[in-house]
Amino acid sequence: MEEISYGTTTLHYDLEYSDRKSMAIEVHPDKSIWVIAPLDTEKTEVERHLLKRARWVLRQQQYFDQFLPRLPERQYIGGEAHYYLGRKYMLVVRKQTRKDVKLRGGELQVSSPNTDPEVVKALLASWYYSHSMPKFREVFEECLPLFKRFNIGSPTLDVRRMKYRWGSCLPPGSESITDGKVIINPEVIKAPKRCMQYVIIHELCHLVIPHHNKAFYSLLGELMPEWERWKLRLEGVVGM
């Protein structure tokens, strides 16, 4: 993900190069910004073009912002509701000599000598991260057969924190990989399994069709007809 400053605002955007004659800027309902540029375009020209359209980009983001769910800001104190695999749990914070996170009954229990909210936040983030890869791997292996007819090889899976995205897809050749890589934000572990399937199928579709165009969404709809339902559910549980 690239970024550029426009006044006091930082625009985060994805840059793709394509065999096309003109540059395109897209703002999607999740407020993500995509720039698709001709193959020989210099980075400075991309930035110049984006800054020229920045006011329009911000207006589009403001328009889509009204449709995004509003999640309460987490305080990481006892009594809060937190999610895991789509289920809601009450956060219980206990001051104890050892650091530990456990899921018991309807509680997500955090123990630590220091119960400062930032410490609790870090412990929870680590717990979510450690639980994400095994579950994502299971769902990933379930989704791969859907793409057998596209000959996408054997893409790999990784978990990586991303501030603005649930997932990402690296094409073959990136980071010295042979068959592409799907990267999932560990925050997705908070959502139901079908939300994980949506993110993984979405990213695997990019190994077939790189851009968010009509053909891409047609393929996504074919492989997961109810994808919009689970995207909205993901936004409601995790946000971004």
Can you tag this structure with a few keywords?
single chain; 11 strands; 4-stranded mixed sheet; about 240 residues; about 25% strand; alpha/beta
In short:
The chain is of the alpha/beta class.
Write up this protein.
By secondary structure, the chain is α/β, with parallel strands linked by helices. Helix content is 35%, strand content 25%. It has helices spanning 43-52, 54-65, 117-143, 193-205, 214-223, 227-237; strands at 2-6, 9-18, 24-27, 33-38, 81-84, 87-95, 100-104, 107-112, 156-159, 167-170, 181-184. Strands 1-2-4-3 form a four-stranded mixed beta sheet. A hairpin with a 2-residue loop joins strand 1 (2-6) and strand 2. The radius of gyration is 20 Å and the shape is globular. It starts with a strand and ends with a helix. The mean pLDDT is 89.
